[in-house]
Design goal:
This protein is about 80% helix and about 0% strand. The protein contains 2 helices and no strands. The protein is elongated.
Length: about 55
Amino acid sequence: MGEFTEKVKGNVNEAVGNVKQESNNPETRAEGRQQEKKGEAQQLKGEVEGKLGNDI
C-alpha cells in the first residue's frame, strides 16, 4: 500500500508545484519548483517500494 500512497502524494505535489510555478510572485514560483521536485522524489520512492515489495 505504501507504493500507491507515495505515488498519489507525488502526483499531488507535482500538480500543486506546477500551479505555483504559474504565479507572478517569484517566491511562489520557487516554492512550486521545490514542491514539484519533492513530488518527483515521492514518485520514485513509490516505484522503489513497489519493486522491493514494501520491504524498505
